[in-house]
């Protein structure tokens, strides 16, 4: 009969009228729909509905005259739910012989109207499996930082925390002075040969400070070539203090500490600890041939890159010279200038030449002019693509302005050469604007990625509260507490968020819809959603604000119960 082909929809004004007959008052302002086979269908939401036993439920205010009764898809040949009326057949099950109620319930998903914006509530509907579904992949990108930046930061973090494995050389020290997790940073060829810039044997290792937990690049100076003494140690400490004002300069690996220890070779030696930048490579490794190191690539430097590098190093030289310091000869050697992320240059191992050659040169003005010559040699090597065969002729492929800049730097020691770093800045002209634009664009990208992760702990706090309430084994205090009242509503919401499957029965693992639902829950928006019980017999229309109030009230109830129990134990 027609009555057997229809489904009776029972609408309840509040959740408390149906669930909490024996529990405390619920704050949910929701609408409860109960489906049961048999009985006549309803076309108006303002009508009173009765169950098979004849119990009447309070009347609801009129919402829409277009509300449709719930009728299975198999018995409504051409019926489709519409976006205009989200309450019309919010769930249409498939053939029950093919899919169980639990599978059907989990298949209800979020869909989005064409005009809805990502993360908005106005365009969201709760639709049937035969509607086009969004996978959440687009939304997921808007909730988190870019994958490129995430991978870069993860690799840097891994390198900061790297340790030697058990198969490594057992004679290599794992701890040096106040630094642990010591790992060599140079290849075998580099660490076994004397430094081209310093003239003595050095070795660079990574170590993590016990005091602050930060990673440092520690330079070991061979104790047989530079014999440590109290006078040398005192002078090294003085050098550290002189470079302290420039420790945070954006184009410098700051000098942090100097100490004497004997972990390497069992002999006392001088060590200097600098700021460590994981994944950094020297300009020699990145661009130059015949460096004696493992080259990452021999890529030709473009004109724009060369100007950017020159501007960065000129900025550093001006700051160093204004502080009354100098990088000294060899400080701007291609093996000592590091290339970090996004074209940033940093000069490494500063202060070592101040320690090794404390009296050379006597005139600081001469030393600062030598820095200008060192910058000219650095640019000439990059333009030539080689340190051993650098020449002005090989740099002729670049613009006349770049050639004039290199020539002016190389002749800085002459009487008519560049006077100082301030005069050098005049060579750049409007090219500085391009550097500023690139840096500001990069800052905008980082700010955008940072804003995506702003207060990302909100969802974590929300999930902690939700999981503390769900399925609590508190039957000895109040039997069935976690399965009644507000907690039952939260249980259905938990299924709504995390237990979806697609049309083929595969679990939906995209996080986009989950994060969106949790964000709306945290904000407590008034948007309504439809929840279904696990047996498929009940539907519930409720807003995110209602669920948020249920979480807070249930969590506060747990907190108050814990405090009461503690106070009772203290009295005993």
UniProtKB/TrEMBL annotation:
Q: InterPro entries, per this entry?
A: Kinase-like_dom_sf (IPR011009), PAN3 (IPR030844), Pan3_CK (IPR041332), Prot_kinase_dom (IPR000719)
Q: Matching SUPFAM superfamilies, A to Z?
A: Protein kinase-like (PK-like)
GO CC annotation terms, alphabetical: P-body; PAN complex
Where are the stretches annotated Disordered? 38-60, 97-132
In what residue span(s) does the Protein kinase domain sit? 190-497
Extract one GO molecular function annotation from the record: ATP binding
Task: Reply yes or no: does the keyword ATP-binding apply.
Answer: yes
Q: Name one GO biological process term.
A: nuclear-transcribed mRNA poly(A) tail shortening
Q: What compartments host this protein? A: Cytoplasm
User: Superkingdom of the source?
Assistant: Eukaryota
Where does the protein principally reside? Answer: cytoplasm
Q: Where is the composition biased (Polar residues)?
A: 98-114
Keyword annotations: ATP-binding, Coiled coil, Cytoplasm, mRNA processing, Nucleotide-binding
Q: What PANTHER family does the annotation carry?
A: DEADENYLATION COMPLEX SUBUNIT PAN3, PAN2-PAN3 DEADENYLATION COMPLEX SUBUNIT PAN3
Name of this protein: Protein kinase domain-containing protein
């Amino acid at each position: 009969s027609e009555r057997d082909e229809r489904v009776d929809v029972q609408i309840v004004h509040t959740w408390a009228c149906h669930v909490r007959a024996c529990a405390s008052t619920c704050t949910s302002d929701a609408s409860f729909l109960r489906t049961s086979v048999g009985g006549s269908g309803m076309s108006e939401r303002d009508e009173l509905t009765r169950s098979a036993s004849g119990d009447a439920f309070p009347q609801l205010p009129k919402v829409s005259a277009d509300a449709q009764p719930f009728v299975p898809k198999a018995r409504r040949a051409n019926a489709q739910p519409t976006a205009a009326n989200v309450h019309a057949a919010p769930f249409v099950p498939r053939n029950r012989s093919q899919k169980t109620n639990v599978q059907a319930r989990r298949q209800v998903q979020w869909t989005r109207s064409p005009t809805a914006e990502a993360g908005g509530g106005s365009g969201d509907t709760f639709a049937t499996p035969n509607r086009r579904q969004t996978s959440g992949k687009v939304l997921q990108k808007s909730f988190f930082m870019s994958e490129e930046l995430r991978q870069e930061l993860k690799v840097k973090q891994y390198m900061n925390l790297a340790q030697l494995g058990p198969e490594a050389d057992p004679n290599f020290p794992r701890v040096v002075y106040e630094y642990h997790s010591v790992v060599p940073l140079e290849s075998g060829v580099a660490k076994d040969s004397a430094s081209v810039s310093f003239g003595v044997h050095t070795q660079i290792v990574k170590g993590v400070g016990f005091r602050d937990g930060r990673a440092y690049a520690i330079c070991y100076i061979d104790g047989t070539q530079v014999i440590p003494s109290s006078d040398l140690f005192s002078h090294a400490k003085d050098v550290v203090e002189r470079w302290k004002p420039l420790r945070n300069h954006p184009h410098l690996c700051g000098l942090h500490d100097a100490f004497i220890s004997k972990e390497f070779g069992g002999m006392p030696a001088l060590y200097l600890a600098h700021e460590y930048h994981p994944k950094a490579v020297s300009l020699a490794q990145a661009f130059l041939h015949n460096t004696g190191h493992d080259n990452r690539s021999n890529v030709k430097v473009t004109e724009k890159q060369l100007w950017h590098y020159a501007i960065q190093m000129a900025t550093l030289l001006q700051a160093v010279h204004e502080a009354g310091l100098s990088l000294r000869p060899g400080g701007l050697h291609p093996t000592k200038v590091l290339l970090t992320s996004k074209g940033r240059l940093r000069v490494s191992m500063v202060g070592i030449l101040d320690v090794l050659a404390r009296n050379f040169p006597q005139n600081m003005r001469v030393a600062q002019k030598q820095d200008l010559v060192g910058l000219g040699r650095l640019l000439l090597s990059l333009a030539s693509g080689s340190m051993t065969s650098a020449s002005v002729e090989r740099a002729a492929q670049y613009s006349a302005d770049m050639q004039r800049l290199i020539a002016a730097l190389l002749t800085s020691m002459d009487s008519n050469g560049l006077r100082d770093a301030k005069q050098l800045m005049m060579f750049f002209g409007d090219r500085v604007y391009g550097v500023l634009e690139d840096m500001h664009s990069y800052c905008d990208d980082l700010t955008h990625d940072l804003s995506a992760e702003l207060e990302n702990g909100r969802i974590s706090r929300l999930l902690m509260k939700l999981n503390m309430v769900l399925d609590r084994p508190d039957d000895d205090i109040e039997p069935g507490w976690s399965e009644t009242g507000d907690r039952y509503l939260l249980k259905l919401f938990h299924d709504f968020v995390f237990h979806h499957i697609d049309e083929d029965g595969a679990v939906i693992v995209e996080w986009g819809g989950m994060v969106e639902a949790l964000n709306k829950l945290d904000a407590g928006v008034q948007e309504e959603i439809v929840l279904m019980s696990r047996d498929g017999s009940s539907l519930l229309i409720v807003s995110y604000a209602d669920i948020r109030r249920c979480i807070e009230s249930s969590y506060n109830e747990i907190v108050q119960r814990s405090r009461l129990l503690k106070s009772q134990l203290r009295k005993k």
